[in-house]
Amino acid sequence: MGPFALRRLLLLLPQALGIATLIFVLFRLVPGDPATIVAGPGATQPQIEALRRELGLDRPLWAQYARFLGDLTRGDLGTSLSLRQPVTQVLAARLAPSAALMAASLLLTVALAVPAGVAAAVRPHSTTAQVVMGVSVLALSIPNFLLGMILMHYLSVRWRLLPAAGTGGLAFLVMPTLAIAARLVALVSRTTRASVMEVLGEDFVRTARAKGLAPRVVLYRHALRPALVPIITMIGLQAGYLLGGSIVVETLFAYQGLGQAMITAVSLRDYFLVQGITLLYVVGFLLVNLVVDLSYAAFDPRIRYA
Amino acid sequence: MRRRLRRLLRVPAMAGGAALVAVYLTAGLLAPWLVPYDPDEQDLMAALQPPSRAHWLGTDDLGRDLASRVIAAARVDLAVVVVGILLAVVIAAPVGLLAGFVGGRTDRVLMTVSDAALTFPSLVLAVVLVSLFGAGLRSVIVAVALTAAPALARLIRSLVLQTAHLEYVDAARALGAGPGRLIARHVVPNIAGRVIVYTTLMGSYAMLTVTALGFLGLGVQPPAAEWGNMLATTRTYLATAPWLLAAPGAAIIGFIFGLNLLGDALRDLFDPKLLWRP
Q1: Mean of the pLDDT values across residues B41-49?
Q2: Which CATH number is A105-267's, of 1.10.10.10, 1.10.3720.10, 3.40.50.11690, 3.40.50.300?
Q3: pTM for this structure?
Q4: By CA distance, what is A264's nearest residue in B?
Q5: CB–CB of B215 and A137 under 8 A?
Q6: Which H or E element spans position A78?
Q7: How near does any CA of chain A get to the CA of B66, in Å?
Q8: pLDDT at A84
Q9: Model ipTM?
Q10: CB contact under 8 A, A240 and B122
Q11: CB A206 within 8 A of CB A218
Q12: Domains: count for chain B
């Protein structure tokens, strides 16, 4: 941790404030007004008025903003109307399954894509390389929910290998993970191939080879490390996809995570729950980018002194 | 120009991608005349039939002809993507040009706004927008435009920064050309090609967003046919009627595959070092 890391961490404060402000603005933009939405379709005018006062929506915008920020710092995100419990409790219950899904997708991505990309870079004209590139173009063309349905059709309907939907042990994690990871594997293996090929042409790699180092050592100790920077960049760029992908894929597989909760909340017009989950997604996105920025410094020493 | 075009089409990926996209555009434009049946006409006696001579892609749960619905959906999906991306360009171009060309405080303010929008994962933003403004065609178009615009504005800004101080632009400036003329006559023509490449790649990502929203029930609403909402029906009948998966699924994959081939080939040509992807 150098001054770079410290500066990067300090940047989190204005970013968090910016996000809170943006969410406040976005959710006050609702055509019609939140009180009507929250009260539901059957509510009478006096009920809506009462609710508006209770939620503080009759007060000036700056007062609402101050209250929103105050509630946030106290960790109060309001109450979920459909589940009748604090939003923070719902988030706490749904976070772990989603986090497991995303972590599994990332692990699978790195485990598959980096070796595949390296293999394709070392022998650019081999069959392996062509298969890697061909499969990756195809994988980029399938929406994750469609791939999920194809997997569901074969793995659970036809061959009865895996449960079609639900949350639980590892078996429930397999298909959602594959559905989300396919696009990431494709992008990361292409990036790995391109960046390893570039590094393999550099002078220091030739020097390492000329010293008589084994090809394996040259590849993994000298070439892969600088090649990791663009690979990490690509993973960081796709963090948004990872989070967004979980919404669709969790819904498809009825996987009890944040994304599935969000879609349910949207359909039930559970205003505060949607707002809370959105906030958590954006914070997650911010943290992933933080980790990416910090890992640059770990893999490329020049960044520390920048 | 024509010779250049012919040379471009000799790259197999480019020619294949362009041909596939052309097929979809034609299908979308001519959909009302191409469909063998009325895509919305129900025939409950013929519900959930597998592919046959009469219905060569089968029928859905309400007995509607799947081939007709897939073609009709091409019209809707392509229109949403094209209009959405055009709207994104209309929003992003002035922002990117202004930020890149004027610089200073204008640049900082505009880029802070676009960075703030970029802190939302795009599908999360799309779901929030659609849920706030109500599901339906118009909201989906707005969601596509607003999720694509911030990244596009940033790209246009960086292209302008690369271009604004090239020698020929400085020469025009020395000759007394005003900022409006510099942008319109010297900067825009130089960066237009690369912007088109990016919008091609954005188009395939936009299609993923549109179909995902449709699948979630937040996009184009039934009975209008849209590939994503057709697949939402498929989920219910996956065990009994797998052909409901094949027709819209193949349609989506084919389109995105074609656009990716075309976009990647164009990018390799215009901007080979670019890593960016929407």
Answers
A1: 82
A2: 1.10.3720.10
A3: 0.89
A4: B216
A5: no
A6: none
A7: 17
A8: 83
A9: 0.88
A10: yes
A11: no
A12: 1
